[in-house]
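Structure tokens please, single chain.
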Amino acid sequence: MPLSVDYVLPDDSATPLLIDCNPRLVEPMNAYLAGVDLVGLLLRVSQGEVPAALPESRAGVRTHLAMQVLLGCASRGGTRRDILCECWRLLTGRGPYADSAEELTPVRLDWLSAVPLAMIATLLLIAPKLALRLARSGWGAHLLDLGSIRLIERDDFR
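Here you go.
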């Protein structure tokens, strides 16, 4: 069974602090780009096969999810200018997106994936606070909010 575990490893401790644990497949595109086909592996296992050991993955593969980036920027109080700057960094592959591949909407490979991405960007540029309404309505309710992030970043977090 696939298992996703998110944790924080504090600088002053070797003990990881659990944030989230879900019995589901996450980041399959990141793994695929790193040379490991998790989806194919899961399909083989679900058909009763016992697959061979996985090949060594390529280290250093970086990916991002542009829609989550934009929604996160807006939900953290980002202004239209902040959102526009983030769109520019995503589009040009600069800053944190240098040498990073898009997972969900790879426009260069699938031009139609630009439609939902452009719609989210446009809506957030019109009304940045829309991101908060989406979170309250159920989308993203499981994600860390700004208060949780601040709590984790505190020196006395345990």
